[in-house]
């Protein structure tokens, strides 16, 4: 089991994108990726909502999320959210460890490695 969070950062104009760019350029995103239990920390831009950035944030366990929330990086994140006047909405998912059902696999073509 792992826990996936979809966090939607919303702002005026390009503010959400500027936030994500600063998270990457100042090294905070990379530090989060190195935290114990972090599986994925990646920003995406929805095509139809220029004022929104989607963060896919996946952790091994709730304890890892709790440690992240108690880390000094949270102050950086909160300060940047304030700087860019962002709101956040969240979706939380628990992963299905049984994998992708064979009925779905015919519709998936993964990149060869």
Summarize the amount of helix as a percent range.
25-40%
Given helix and strand content, the structural type is alpha+beta
Count the beta strands: 4
- Describe the sheet with the most strands: 4 strands, antiparallel
Q: Give the integer mean of the pLDDT values.
A: 94
| CATH structural class | Alpha Beta
State the shape.
globular
What is the N-to-C succession of helices and strands? EHHEEHHEH
Corresponding CATH architecture: 2-Layer Sandwich
Give the N-terminus to C-terminus distance in angstroms.
25 Å
**Low-confidence region ranges:** none
The number of domains: 1
Our Rg estimate from Cα atoms comes to 16 Å
Beta-strand portion reads 25-35%
Could you walk me through the main structural features you see in this protein, from its secondary elements to its overall organization?
- By secondary structure, the chain is an alpha+beta fold.
- It has one domain: 2-Layer Sandwich (Alpha-Beta Plaits).
- The protein has 5 helices and 4 strands.
- It has a 4-stranded antiparallel β-sheet with strand order 2-3-1-4.
């Amino acid at each position: 089991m792992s826990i996936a969070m979809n966090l939607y950062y919303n702002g005026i104009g390009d503010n959400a994108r500027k936030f994500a760019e600063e998270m990457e350029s100042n090294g905070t995103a990379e530090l989060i990726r190195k935290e114990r239990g972090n599986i994925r920390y990646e920003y995406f831009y929805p095509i139809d909502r220029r004022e929104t950035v989607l963060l896919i944030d996946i952790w091994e366990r709730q304890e890892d999320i709790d440690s992240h929330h108690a880390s000094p990086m949270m102050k950086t994140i909160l300060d940047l959210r304030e700087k860019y006047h962002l709101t956040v909405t969240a979706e939380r998912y628990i992963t299905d460890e049984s994998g992708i059902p064979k009925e779905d696999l015919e519709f998936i073509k993964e990149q060869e490695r």
